[in-house]
Amino acid sequence: MKRRSFVNFFLGGSLGATVLAFLYPIIRYLLPPAQAEALQKRVMAAKVGDLAPNSFKIFKFGSSPGILINTQEGQLVALSAVCTHLTCTVRYEGDSGTLHCPCHNGRFDLAGNVISGPPPAPLETYKVEIVGEDVFVAKKA
Amino acid sequence: MKKTFQALWAFLDERFQVHSLLELAKKKTVPEHKHSFWYFFGGICLFLTALQVATGIMLLIYYTPTVDGAHESVQFIMSQVKFGWLIRSVHSWSANILIGVLLIHMFSTFFLKAYRSPRELTWVTGFFLFVLFLAFGFSGYLLPWNELSFFATRVGTDIAGSLPLVGKALKTFILGGSTIGQATLTRFVWLHTAILPLAAAVLIGLHVLLVQLLGMSTPLSLKDKPVKEIPFFPDFIYKDVLGWTLILILVGVLCVFLPWEIGKKADPFSATPLGIKPEWYFTFMFTTLKIIPSHILSIEGEKLAILGFLLGGALWLLVPFLNRRASQGKPSPTVTLVGAAILAYIVVMTILTYTLPGL
Amino acid sequence: MPKLGFAAAVMIGALLLPGALLAQKNSCLECHSKLEDELKAPVEGFKLDIHQQFGLSCADCHGGNPAKDDENLAKDKTFRGAPKRPQVPAFCARCHSDSAYIKTFNPRLRVDQLDQYRTSRHGLLLQKGDTKVAVCTDCHGVHGIQTAKHPKSRTFPWNVPQTCGRCHADAALMKAYGIPTSQLEEYKQSVHARALFEKKDMSAPVCNSCHGNHGAAPPDVKSIAFVCRQCHPSAGELFSKSPHKKAFDEMGFSECEACHGKHKILQPADAMLGTEKGALCAQCHEPGSKPSVAAGRMRQLLGELTSEIDADGALLDRAERKGVEVSDPKYRLQEIHTLLVSVRNLTHGLDLADIEEKAGEGKTLLVGVRASAEAALREARLRRTGLVVATIFLILFALAFYLKIRQMRGRPKA
């Protein structure tokens, strides 16, 4: 009798512990995580007023850098910052109003087209959406 | 406490009439002999299926079935969602283990000739279940939308498309168009989460019902010997659960030490990566098609191979009806030999896929 | 009936006429295709020639009358034959220096090749009577000439080193001129060759990028710097602002070449900088002098940055191998690596304060990356601990079941 109830107790106890060990991850899984959405098709790149005219900012878009430019005329333009030559990060040059890659002197215009240098392809352009105080950058198409 | 439990039980029993079922269950016995070890594999398949359903349902909370979002959502599950890595890895690992166990279950029942009368329909439903689970594997594999899955799907659907007569229509139906795209992904999600589970539920229901009604088959070699019987409930069930627990431990270890990779996002415009292969359980067919000579007696080698597989599948399905000797209780070594040859072929072809250079 | 016959003749004639017009008689090809070896080669080669694509043929270069089958009649007084080596440049230039003529085929094609060639070493030596130097056909081929945009062309970027190397890597040939023949081998080891041949980067420099095409000559000391600046302007700008510029000019040193070499330009190593053995700074600067100390400090900063980047990278790899998803810190590490590239570039400017600032920026960012890496490793450890706990429970559960089963066996049958 004693042995039997010990085995039953052992069984019930280990079952209970196992169930709890399984319930804990399941419940944590079901609770929404900090970053609500997976999709990185659209990110908030900056706040309105962050950038002075004729300046730029590099922001993270998915797993690669993007560049947000406030042109001389005050227009916001966003493109991929990954140079199509050897993937260095491009920068905006206020003097020339073009995007310059410091690695091998590649140059792009604000539409992403290659103006000079070794890059073989244009930079991908993004859409800029201003929602209230936030500047969102989204992939086209 | 005990009194309330008993009162509740009596209330439910009056309405659901459970006690008569329980009486039946208590009477059920399972033979125990030197081959009864194989009996457990059916239950393991059931357990792993339940695991797949549970983890699959959980993955659906965070998975996005779009070309733009599928890969990102899997990345999200693996990195941001708490224990997402575990749920997803369990789902991927169990899927592969399940197919392996299904093969063991299928071949063990084949060699033990458990399909003989009156269990023909158990075999038939089992065969269709096997096909369903291969479809589960094929459709599920595309869902993470990574490079491997995209091109493996392309290879697979190309083979489907080369079937005589129905090939082109079949391929278009599977793909939802002419190429793999959003339509394909939506279709595969539809198959994987709705149609196949429904079909599987029905077939599993029939399969398990038949097993319960007809009991376990005893191998012919023990036909004239007395066989010990143990109660199904709770003895056999307990052993079942013990087996399931061990499988669970295995899955846990695999998921922590070898979590499933996310892979590179699929790019339909990139070139097919070298050495692309489908999942391991399809490789024996894949390798056959690759190494078969282009023409055999003026018939296209590939078409011949596909017809061979279809014919083989049909024969496999009909083996309970074709193997009359087994139904009559006589030994049928020819059938056993053929089965062994098929098994050997599958094993050799699978190994060759990973060892042959240039494949 | 006659009407039908007439109609048939017209139809057949109409069908054959275009064929007849297109297949204009070319007795040169007809005869030479029946000959052997050197005399047959032009026929085979010409099939792929760019001149043929523009509708030109044998007679357009060599003269003669391709309508005549008889050899003597074909080689009429307009026949120029095959030019001897010294005559080749003029032979090609007959068309290629004729602006009006070339314009009809390709308005953008240059027509100054002969002028350029005459200024080149090859051209100058040829004028003095040396027939061993390169003429047009040595680089462009003959009877199978393709544009430099065609991958099979001898003048396509990745074929250029081999084209120049045919002579310039031939020790026996170059001995007479006293020119070394190591350039091709050296170039092949360079980072430019790697970019060209392995990464298929067509913008990578080959021989003609620095030496020129038709006016080929080794760039003199002052020019080397300009040549490199075509693609590396920021390094050049920094160098021009640095104290090295004045010093190098005064001493007549070749700017970029002094430290980086000219053909065997390798991936620059941090070890080139500093005070250790093998560093380039020690070649001019006394140990203990202000520049030497500054060089040592720069080397130290670079060393600290690279070792921290490597260490953090290793931590992240370990975490990734253990199954933790680390794409975010890896991205940040990649950005820091870009920063490292710019710090290395800053060494050309020799401004220690600038370098300290930029390196400091990197170090601050690395602190964040290391924190993420360590968090990832903690997550990996946590998972394993969780697994151990859950497995222990499961094992206990299995054990309990086993005992229960044993117990069941023992009891009397129901």
What is the topological layout?
The complex is a heterotrimer of chains A (141), B (359) and C (414).
Chain A: H1 2-30, E1 42-47, E2 55-61, E3 64-70, E4 76-80, E5 91-93, E6 98-101, E7 106-108, E8 114-116, E9 125-131, E10 134-139
Antiparallel strand pairs in A: 1-10, 2-3, 3-4, 4-9, 5-6, 6-7, 7-8, 9-10
Chain B: H1 2-16, H2 18-27, E1 29-32, H3 40-62, H4 70-79, H5 84-111, H6 120-142, H7 147-161, H8 167-175, H9 182-214, E2 228-231, H10 232-257, H11 283-291, E3 295-296, E4 299-300, H12 301-322, H13 324-327, H14 333-355
Helix pairs in contact in B: 3-5, 3-10, 4-5, 5-6, 5-10, 6-7, 6-9, 6-12, 7-8, 11-12, 11-14
Chain C: H1 2-22, H2 27-32, H3 37-46, H4 50-53, H5 58-62, H6 71-74, H7 88-96, H8 99-105, H9 113-119, H10 121-127, H11 136-140, H12 160-168, H13 171-175, H14 183-188, H15 191-197, H16 207-211, H17 221-229, H18 233-241, H19 243-251, H20 257-260, H21 290-321, H22 327-346, H23 352-410
Q: State the CATH class of the largest domain in chain A.
A: Mainly Beta
CATH superfamily of the largest domain in chain A: Rieske [2Fe-2S] iron-sulphur domain
In which range does the helix fraction of chain A lie?
A: 10-25%
Give the rounded overall mean pLDDT of chain C. 87
- Proportion of residues in extended strands of chain A: 35-45%
State which percent range the strand residues of chain C make up: under 5%
CA radius of gyration of chain A is 26 Å
Query: Secondary-structure element sequence of chain A?
Result: HEEEEEEEEEE
Q: Radius of gyration of chain C in whole Å, from Cα?
A: 36 Å
Structural class of chain A: alpha+beta
The amount of helix of chain C comes to 55-70%
Average pLDDT across residues of chain A?
87
Continuous helix count of chain C: 23
Largest interface: A-C, 30 and 30 residues
Unreliable spans of chain A are none
Shape of chain C: flat
Q: Pairing-aware structural class of the strands and helices of chain C?
A: mainly alpha
Distance between the termini of chain A: 73 Å
Helical run tally of chain A = 1
